[in-house]
Amino acid sequence: MTSSPRPFWPPLVAGAALGIALLISFLITGHGLGASGFVTRLSAQISGWLAPDLTTANAYFGPFLTAGAPLASWITWEVIGVLIGGYVGARTAGRSRLMVERGPQASVGQRFAFAFIGGALVGIGGRLARGCTSGLGLSGGATLAVAGFVFLAGFFIAGFVVSALVRRAWQ
Amino acid sequence: MSVPFYDSGVASGLLSGILFGYVLEAAGFGSARKLTGQFSLKDWSVFKVMFTAVLVAAVGLYLLRLGGMIAGNSVYIPTLYLWAMAAGGLLIGAGFAMGGYCPGTSLVGIVSGRVDAVVFVVGMIVGTMAFAGVYEPIQGFYFAAKGPDAQRLPDLLGLPEWLILAVLIVVAIAGFVLGSRLERARGGPFTAEDVNGEDTSKAKNQNTTFNTEAGIVP
User: Fold this and answer.
1) What's the CA gap between A68 and B151, in Å, rounded?
2) CB contact, 8 Å: A71 with chain B?
3) What are the boundaries of the region Disordered (chain B) (predicted)?
4) Tens digit of pLDDT for each residue in B44-84?
5) Residue B39: exposed, middle, or buried by beta-carbon count in 10 A (0-12, 13-18, 19+)?
6) DSSP state, A134?
7) Contact B123 A12 (CB under 8 A)
8) Radius of gyration of chain B (CA)
C-alpha cells in the first residue's frame, strides 16, 4: 500500500554507478554504451519494410539492409537490456506511472508536438554527430576523445539557448 | 586473460544494457521534467551524473592502462568530424530541451510509463529517416573538417593525461558546488515524488500535517 515512490539516488552515487557500468561495458566489449545506433538500425529496418527498393538504393540505409538484418547487432541486445533494467528499477521503486509528463501549463497536444519535434531534431542530430549523449558524450567523453567534448559543448550550448526559448513548455 | 574481451554477444549486450537502464532510472532520468531541469538550472542531475560517470570511467581506464591491465589503444575512441559533430550536438541539445529526452533516456522514459517518450521515439525514427533522405547532398558537410583518427584531449593539448583528469575533476567539483547552490535557490532538484506523484491527490490530502517526511524545511 505504499503509494509514495522511493527517492532517486543522489547524483554522486548514480554518477559513480553509471561510470562503473560504463567501465564494465568497455572491459567486456571494447566500446562504451549507446542508444542512437539502435534507432538508426530500427529506422533502416522499418524503412526497409515500408519501401524496400527505395531503402536499398538509399546511400545511408542501403548498406544496413544489404549487410543482412539491420537489427541483428549488439546494440539491439543492449537496448533490450536498457528497457529491462529501466523497467525493473522503475517498478521496484514505485516510480512507474502511466502519464504524459509535461509542464504545469502545457496541454497534452502541445507536449506531444514538442516531443515529436524534439525527437526528430535528436534523430537528425544523432546521425550527423555519429552518436548521441550516450555514445559520444558519455562513452566518448570517458575515453577523453576530442569528439566527445565537441559534442558535449554543442549539446549544453543549444540546450540552454533552446530551453530559454521554450521555457513556458516546462514551467 | 586479456581485457577487453571484445564480446559482442547477446549476454554482453543484455548485461551492459540492464546496468545502464537500471542506473539511468535510479538517477531519475526517465523523467523529462528532471532531465530538462538542467537547462532551467533547477536540477543539475544531468551535469552531475554525466560528469561523475565520465570521470569515474576515464580514471578507471587510465589506471587500468597504467597498471598494464589494458593496452593503450584497446578501447574504441571516436574520431572527430568537427562540423557534423558540433551541429549534431547542437541539434541534440535543442531536441532534448524541447522534447525532454535524449535517445537513451527516452527508452527509460517509456518503461517508466511516459507516453510522451513514445512520441519522442517516433519523432527520432522520422528524423533518422529524414537524415537518410538528405544524406547524399550533405555528405560534404558530414565528412568535413575530420580530425586525426581517434584523437584524445592529451594529444590535442599536448598535456599529460593525469593533468587533464585533475582539471576535469576540479571543474566537476566546481559544477557540483555551483549547481547545488542554484538548485536550492530555485526550489530544486526534482524529487521522485515531484515527478511521479501528482495525480495522487489522495496522497496529498493525507499529508494534512506538514511535509515532515520529505524534510522540506525552509
Assistant:
1) 32
2) no
3) 189-218
4) 999 999 999 999 999 999 999 999 999 988 999 999 999 99
5) buried
6) I
7) no
8) 21
C-alpha cell at B30: 526517465
ipTM score assigned to the predicted complex:
0.97
Total H helices, total E strands in chain B: 11, 0
Angle between helices A108-129 and B103-111 (to 10 degrees): 140
Residue B152, beta-bridge partner list: A145
Q: Burial of A142 by CB count in 10 Å (0-12 exposed, 13-18 middle, 19+ buried)?
A: buried
Say if residues A139 and A148 touch (Cβ distance below 8 Å): yes
Residue B16 has which C-alpha cell?
551492459
Weakly modelled stretches of chain A, pLDDT under 50: 1
Provide the shortest C-alpha distance from residue B210 to chain A (in Å): 16
Cβ of A114 and B98 within 8 Å? yes
Q: Where do the domains of chain B lie?
A: 10-196
Count of CB pairs separated by less than 8 Å, A with B: 549
Following DSSP, what letter does each residue of B102-146 receive, concatenated?
-HHHHHHHHHTTBHHHHHHHHHHHHHHHHHHHHTTTTHHHHTSSB
